Amino acid sequence: MDSLKLSTILLSLLSLAIITQAQDPTYLSHYCPNTTTFTTNSTYQANLNLLLSSLSSNSTRNINGFYNVSAGKDPDEVYGMFLCRGDVSNSVCRNCVNFATKDVLEKCPIEKVAMIWYDECELRYSNRNIFSTVDQDFTIFKSSPNNVTVQPESFNQLVETTIYDIAARAASAPSGAKKFAVQQANYTGVQKLYTLVQCTPDLSTAGCSRCLEGAISKLGNCCDRKQGGRVIFASCNFRYELYEFYNATAAAEAVPPPSPATPSPPPASGSKTSGKGKVDNILFNCHVVL
C-alpha cells in the first residue's frame, strides 16, 4: 500500500513538472552585444530592474499585447518594451513576458542592450530610445529542414506575394490596433499556405511597411523552397508554414478598438513623486500606444 501511495505521489509530481514545463514559452533566440555593459549595483541596473518589473506587471493588462516604458534619466535611462504575438491569449502573453523578464537577465546579465525572442512574445531594452523606430540591425532566420517538392518556384512566388499582401494590411492598421495580420492561400489541391506578419504598434504605417519590406527581401537568404520559415527583426517579423501554426479564430479578432488610458497607480507610502512619476528620484515614464 505504501509503495502504491509513493508511486501515485511521484506520478503526480512528474505530471505537475511536465505541465509546468509545457507552460514555458518556446525560446527562439537572444541578442545582447557586449559593447556596452553596466556594473553590479549601478544606477543603470536599478533602473533596469524597475523597468523589467513594470513590463511584467503591465503584461496583465489588455493593451493589445504591447507595452513600452522608460525608467530613470540620462545617462542611465533605460527604454524597454514587449510585444506578444497577435493571436495569443492574455494569459499566454502574461506568462511569456514574465518568463522573459527573468530569462533575459540570465542570458544577458550585464549588457545594457538586450533582445530575447520566443514563439509567443519578444522583449527588449536599451540605453537608447527605441520607441517608434524601425530596427533591422539584427536578423533571425528560421526555416524548415524540408524543401517543397511540388512546383518549388511557384511556391516561392506564392509565399512572397501572400506575405506582401498581408504586410500592407498590417501596416495600415488604425492607431491603437495591433499591426498584425494572417492569411491562408491555396498551394496545391490538398495543401494550404499559412502566413503571419507583425510590427510593433508604435511604428507608423510607413515604418511598419519599410520594416516588413526589409524582412521580405531576406526570403531568398532564409527560406528558398523551404516548407516553412520566418525572418525576425526587432521591430517586425513574418512567418509562413504549410500547417496552421496560429489561432485562426483569435487572429480574426486581433484588431480591437483602442483601449482608454488607465491612470497611474498612487505612489507607495513614503515615496517621493513629482513630474512624470518620479519615484524615489528615479524617473519612470510609461508610453502606451493608443
From TrEMBL:
Family annotation (Pfam families): Stress-antifung
Domain Gnk2-homologous, chain residue ranges per copy: 26-130, 136-245
InterPro entries: GNK2, GNK2_sf
Keywords: Repeat, Signal
Signal peptide: 1-22
Region (Disordered): 254-276
Listed Pro residues bias regions: 255-268
Protein name: Gnk2-homologous domain-containing protein
